[in-house]
Amino acid sequence: MDVIPAIDLLDGRCVRLYKGDYAQSQVFGENPVEVAKMWEDQGATRLHLVDLDGAKAGKIVNLAAIEAIRNELSIPIEVGGGLRDRFSVIQLFNIGIEWAILGTVAVEKPELVQELCQQFPQKIIVGIDARNGQVATRGWLETSTVLATQLAVQMQELGAAAIIYTDINRDGTLQGPNLEALRELAATISIPVIASGGVSSVTDLLSLLALEPQGVEGVIIGKALYTNDIILKEALQAIGPGRLQDIPADFGTSNIA
Q1: Of these four, 67, 157, 162, 241, which has the most CB atoms within 10 Å of its CB?
Q2: What is the pLDDT of residue 255?
Q3: Which residues are catalytically annotated?
Q4: How far apart are CA 124 and CA 112, in angstroms?
């Protein structure tokens, strides 16, 4: 299973939200490049970036910070937040980002997801953020009537490389992941599931590791790393790299235009 450190960008700084609430943000670093480099130096094989300003604005806002991180790191990076048109996705690929994470458009413009999956095979990940099993959109500010499992099946059919599942009610709380929801989601689809939200200890990671045979192949860790509830090196030793590394980071880049 892959352990993926998360950096959430808000006003150019590294922050964590509590249950997706922008009013409850905590700053953990003024220089995201330094934070990203720290995770790479500690052994991370992949980095998760979210442009929180972009998620609210509906377009990339922190492109300069994302590019600065990309230029400094050698490991592959996945980026989400505000990617609601083809141009935004291409902007990321043009600066060397390996995977684009689509969220809101998966609900509102599934035809765009299909188009991008076809043009950039294995480079489009769909982020499904849910409250009580229902998908939230637009930076978690709106909740739809679409079920997470229903959307995951549709996105798999459209060609998504993987699904990142975030339980919003667990995000930033250190209360542990929603194992039941992850188990249900993984049983519904065959593409990799990446868990996000609530991970607070190596014990939580071992609980997720038990779901790896069912398709939960990665875990994104945010707040627990910044509060030292989880030490990245220890986490990597406990559960090690997994099958997500088999997704080629450079696959499809020649299609960028």
Answers
A1: 162
A2: 43
A3: 8, 129
A4: 11
Residue type, 129: D
Residue segments in the chain with a per-residue pLDDT below the cut of 70: 16-27, 29, 138-144, 170-173, 242-257
Number of domains making up the chain: 1
CATH of the domain at 145: 3.20.20.70
Q: What is the pTM of this model?
A: 0.87
Q: Report d(CA 22, CA 134) in Å as an integer.
A: 20
- Estimate to the nearest angstrom the gap between the alpha carbon of 72 and the chain centroid: 20
Per-residue pLDDT at 251:
42
Q: Which is nearest to 184 in space by CA: 216, 226, 139, 224?
A: 216
Q: Is residue 255 part of a domain?
A: no
Enclosing domain of residue 227: 2-248
Compute the distance between CA of residue 167 and CA of residue 149 in angstroms, rounded to an integer: 13
Q: What are the distances in angstroms from CA 64 to CA 11, 98, 245?
A: 12, 16, 27
Is residue 104 in a domain? yes
Residue 254 within a domain: no
In this prediction, residue 140 carries a pLDDT of 52
Indicate the average pLDDT of the chain: 87
Strand 134-137, strand 77-80: pairing: unpaired
Closest alpha carbon to 1 in 225, 210, 255, 198: 210
3-state secondary structure of 122: coil
- Cα distances (angstroms) measured from residue 247 to each of 19, 76, 213, 219, 257: 30, 11, 17, 15, 22
